[in-house]
Design brief:
This protein is an all-alpha fold. The two termini are about 30 Å apart.
Length: about 90
Amino acid sequence: MNRKLEALIDRVPTWPQEAQDEAVRALAEIEVAYVGPGRPLTPEEEAKLADLRETINRSIERGGSYTDEEVAAYIERVHARAEQKGR
């Protein structure tokens, strides 16, 4: 953590409750945008998700199903292909 951020966070307990609540909301939004599950997907992640959705939809249309292991193996194959292509 950089020093300016650390110093600022150290002072937060001295702030009024309303300001602390606002800090929580702001930091939570930053976390989601940069590191949390709600962050925007990269083009590679979008492609993987589209491939997975397509595979699942084909399975549903055929009346079949995939095990968790089969889905995990498929995701690994797509990921490995993307890495080979330098994505």
